[in-house]
Amino acid sequence: MSTMPQHSLIQIYELLFNEYGPQHWWPGDSPFEICVGAILTQSAAWVNVEKAIGNLKTADALNSTALCSITTDKLASLLYSCGYYNAKAKKLKAFVKHLALLYDDNLDKLFDQSINDLRKELLSIHGVGDETADSMILYAAKMPIFVIDTYTRRIFTRLGYDAANDSYVNFQSLFSTNLPHHVKLFNEYHALLVNHGKEVCKKIPLCGKCCIGVLCSYQSDKQAKA
Ligand code: SF4
After folding, report:
1. How far is the CA of 91 from the centre of ligand 1 (A)?
2. Which helix (H) or strand (E) holds 68?
3. 66 sits in which H/E element
C-alpha cells in the first residue's frame, strides 16, 4: 500500500478549504438524527433523505422509542423518498432496537467506549456498514475516525493514491496514518471531499476548474498526452 506524505494531505485540505470554505457538517439537529441520516443516506441523495427525516419529524417519530413501536410498513412509507425504503425501515428498526435493549435508548451510553469497540459494535448491527458506522462515530459521537466514501475513493485514486484492492480500510489508513487525529479536521476534510466530488471531480471531471489540479496525476497524465 502506498502512502502520501502528511504535507500533501494537509496541502490538499487547505486548497479545498480555501476554495469551498467551511461545510458545516453533518446536517442534523441531534446525534440521534445524525445516526438516522447516516443509515438513510445509503445510496440516496441527501435532498431525499431530508424529505424522509422531515416525514419522521412530522409523524413525531424521530426518536428511539417511537421508531421501536411504529410498524415496519408505516415506517417504510415515511421513508419512501430516500429509496430502498423497506430495507431502510428494517435497518432503522435494528438500530433502535439495539439502542433500546442495551442502552435504554441512550446514545451517550452507546458512545461511551473506545473508537475500536464502538466501531465493532456498530458493525454488528444489521444494515450498518463501514461508511455508516464511521459517519456515526465522527459526526454523532464526535470521535476522530476518517469516513471513506465514493467521492474520496475517486478523488484520491485520480490524485495518484494506490489503495491495494481499493479496500475501505486501505483508503482509511491513508488519512489515519498521515493526519493528526482531530475531529474538526476529519469532519471538515470529509465534507470538503464530498463537495469537491459533487461539484468538480465528477464522473467526468472538470479538471479546468479544479483547485487541487497541480497535485493530480490524472491531470498531469492528461497534459502529458496532449
Ligand atoms: S484535476 Fe481533475 S481528476 Fe484531478 S482531482 Fe481535480 S477534477 Fe479530479
Report:
1. 35
2. helix 64-69
3. helix 64-69
pLDDT digits (tens, 9 = 90+) for 173-204: 999 999 999 999 999 999 999 999 999 999 99
Q: What is the pTM of this model?
A: 0.94
CB of residue 44 inside a 6 A radius of ligand 1: no
Domain extents in the chain: 6-23+147-225, 31-140
CATH number of this structure's domain 6-23+147-225: 1.10.1670.10
CA distance readout (Å), 221 to 45, 156, 159, 201, 212: 32, 15, 11, 16, 15
Look at residue 1 and tell me whether its pLDDT is greater than 50. no
- Answer yes or no: is pLDDT of 2 > 60: no
- Cβ burial of 188 (10 Å; 0-12, 13-18, 19+) is buried
* Residue 59 Cα to ligand 1 middle (Å): 43
Amino acid at site 97: K
CB distance 60 to 70 below 8 Å: no
Pull the grid cell for residue 202: 465528477
Which CATH number is correct for 31-140, 2.60.40.1220, 3.40.190.10, 1.10.340.30, 3.20.20.70? Answer: 1.10.340.30
Position 122, amino acid = L
pLDDT tier at 165 (50, 70, 90 boundaries)? Answer: confident
